[in-house]
């Protein structure tokens, strides 16, 4: 599936740039910026890990101080700037200050993000040396956006981008996003670094609520390895450059805005799962017939994060017993004698009893790039979906040598 964005799909009033400042040992792009020509409404969700990187702390503070009106995000890959004490905090503050100076805006109008190895000093001088060129080369172009998307990658094998649009008051509103992530992926308000921009007009408070609502069924419904990073940030800028009236809660425009944001976030989230470290396939876990959505999601998450389930999918093994057992330890009460399970469309369990099926045919279907698993509890009307990937030996190899 192609996710490359065209020039026409970009929102008005945003500029993008990326450069190689030397943080990545390979010399690849590793420093990027998104800026809005005018102050934009901003909203974000951040990691809930108790170990929090300095950029997250500063970005939270800036978002509060500016009352949700921001001008830019500056992001580096190759170093997380985490667990570095006062030096790490000072590096992030200086990055923000110098970026604001170059853009001619207040420091609290800048969000700063970092991703990479934890516990290694950030080579601030490399960032500062590259900032003049980076800010000077900002362009409202698809190529610049593509380079930005590549610059934030770490163990990703490919950049991740998505776009959507809708009409309001006779005008077209654009929305695009990019994300990084392949490992250390698990939801807790946010997972990965992900940036979304739109030329819609919307108040910061409504934008924040909408982002949280959309995050629940997208970025908060994926897992690669059950680990949440110290730097996770998902943010959206809305600068109103499309020239339409402000999106208001409960309106047709708000529903269209929410649908567009959900499309972008789900696409990015699923691209992350598909690019999971060592992954061969995406597994969709759908739980139906639960008493509540929370119960359905809890069961789906437990199945999706089970190492036994994930390794079975790595080998195309239709071992439904692992799925059933994972559901049973989720902490959600249900009657096992009423449960149905389908794997890749093949019924394997009905009302708690195993069914005869062709294991070879089932195994072949489980080797597809996208595998749906449906578990029906017959206990209510609520449902939830969760996405994960298989767990392979390649994941171990990548993470065993990440620093060396």
What keyword list fits this structure?
404 residues, alpha+beta, 8-stranded mixed sheet, 7-stranded mixed sheet, 11 helices
Question: What is this structure, in a nutshell?
Answer:
By secondary structure, the protein is α+β, with helices and mostly antiparallel strands. Helix content is 33%, strand content 26%.
Largest sheet descriptor: 8 strands, mixed
Helix content: 25-40%
Query: What is the general shape?
Result: globular
Radius of gyration: 22 Å
H/E series? EEHEHEHHEEEHEEHEHHHEEEHEEH
What is the helix tally?
A: 11
- SSE-based structural type: alpha+beta
- Uncertain segments: none
Average pLDDT works out at 93
Number of extended strands: 15
The first-to-last residue Cα distance is: 33 Å
**Proportion of residues in extended strands:** 25-35%
Q: How is the secondary structure organized here?
A:
Layout: E1 14-19, E2 31-46, H1 54-65, E3 69-77, H2 85-103, E4 110-115, H3 124-136, H4 142-151, E5 160-168, E6 171-180, E7 193-198, H5 204-216, E8 222-223, E9 233-238, H6 252-274, E10 282-290, H7 293-304, H8 307-314, H9 320-328, E11 340-343, E12 346-350, E13 353-354, H10 359-366, E14 370-376, E15 382-389, H11 393-400
Parallel strand pairs: 3-4, 7-9, 8-15, 10-14
Antiparallel strand pairs: 1-2, 2-3, 2-9, 5-6, 6-7, 10-15, 11-12, 11-14, 12-13
Helix pairs in contact: 2-3, 5-6, 7-9
